[in-house]
Amino acid sequence: MLILKPGLFLQDLRVTLRWLARAKGLAVKFVLTLALGNGASAAIFSVVRGVLLMYSRLLVG
Questions:
Q1: Per-residue confidence (pLDDT) for residue 61, from 0 to 100
Q2: pTM, rounded to two decimals
Q3: Sign of the alpha-carbon dihedral angle for 30, 32, 38, 44
Q4: Cα separation of 52 and 60, whole Å?
Q5: CA atoms in the 13 A half-sphere facing the CB of 16
Q6: Which among 2, 45, 15 is positioned nearest to 53, based on CA atoms?
Q7: C-alpha–C-alpha distance, residues 28 and 34, integer Å
Q8: Rounded CA separation 31/59 (Å)
Q9: Tens of pLDDT along 6-17?
Q10: Which residues neighbour 20 within 8 Å (Cβ) at sequence distance 6 or greater?
Q11: What is the chain's mean pLDDT, rounded?
Q12: CB 27 within 8 A of CB 20
């Protein structure tokens, strides 16, 4: 079982933020990759949801 200690988490977060502040180019790549992944997931979800709703309405009505 994984037990998270708040102090260790905050320490890890501080170290990570310091590391990303030093490597600004890498931090920008990380943020852009996360944004692109989230946007693509949302777009695919919207398309699939729209198609499924359209076909369900055709089947019912």
A1: 59
A2: 0.57
A3: negative
A4: 12
A5: 8
A6: 45
A7: 10
A8: 42
A9: 788 889 989 988
A10: 26, 27, 30
A11: 86
A12: yes
> Considering only CA atoms, which of 27, 7, 11, 31 is closest in space to residue 19?
27
Q: Using the 8-state DSSP alphabet, how is residue 12 labeled?
A: H
Which residue type is seen at 33? T
Residue 2, token pair as written in the block: 């994984």
pLDDT at 35 over 80: yes
User: Which whole number is the average pLDDT over 19-29?
Assistant: 90
DSSP 5: -
Report the alpha-carbon distance of residue 1 to residue 58 in Å, rounded: 48
Helix (H, G, I), strand (E, B) or coil at 4: coil
8 closest CA partner among 21, 16, 27: 16
Number of H helices, E strands in the chain: 2, 0
How many whole angstroms separate alpha carbon 38 and alpha carbon 44?
Answer: 10
